[in-house]
Design a protein that fits this description.
Length: 370
Amino acid sequence: MSAELIVSNLRKQFSVGRPAVDDVSFRIAAGEIVVLLGPSGCGKTTTLRCIAGLEQATSGSISIGPDLMSAPERGVQVPSRLRNIGMVFQSYAVWPHMTVKQNVAYPLRQRKVTRAEIDRRCAEVLELVGLAEYAARPVTQLSGGQMQRVALARALVYEPRLLLLDEPLSNLDAKLRLRLRDELRRIIKAAGVTALYVTHDQDEAVVLGDRIGVMQEGKLMQMSAPVDLYNRPENLFVANFTGVANFLKGELASAPGAVRLPTGDVLRIGAPPPGRAGDSVVVAVRPENIVLRPDGEAGEVANSFPARVIEGHFHGTQTTYAVETLGHRLEVIELGTVPRFNANDSIRVVIPPDLSWVFPQDAKSAVTPS
């Protein structure tokens, strides 16, 4: 049922301005879930719409399995209805005058499938999405989460080769979104369908995706497994968009794997930073990776520096601190149900070398997310 998706050098140019999609290439293996993640206007939805055939690409190619779907420079543009794809949108797009089963069966009736086969497939897919007992219920009597499951069932019932999902959870309340995103991955994997999912929500991307592609201004900045994307961002934009809040400017020191800050302090970095001694760089560190210790308890640890607590905010299961150190104000997140430090406390901060990343300093302005 599922098929490989190959997108090569995809470009979409509207009438004015920069391209909405600019030379984007990626491959999704059959049965894999890939998430396109990025801020509004980054090109992720336009990419999805080009794959669906709802937008005509300016150049590049799109293939689903062995079949070429789009190649404008070769005169190929297969209509959306012939691409055998399923789509789930932000809005539920269910027919309010129909029951759950009638909504799900609609694509099969359009394809002239026999009544017995319609009954069989509808029963299977409604069981898959957890709505078997609601088959005869009018969709107007369902919750928002249930209606989105109807939309998903309708997209899966005719066994598409590719499933496209455009922020399908964005209209749900926060608690329901958390519950349904876990279910969504289970359902897609159980169906065995190749899926491309678009979102601006990092948490959704991490939970749902086998791989995540981060986009900015029409370009694909990085596509990696969630753990690699989070722990090995390839540029400042990816680091910032996925949660890095601390940036320390400095220059590469003559000693290998070291950055000298304007204060004269030297930061040790796990991986040898690219460039030569004297090059201006930015060190990026996630708030949750910085370790706080009482003053005098640092021991023989790399990258241990004196600091002062500016303020702390307790959130129940964690505390966020603002600390002053190395000539910077750093944000630190510490797990625990009891805050350990108060404003103006003198402490030590430890910045793990292996969890710090170095990027060229002049790149920051070019990759700061909107």
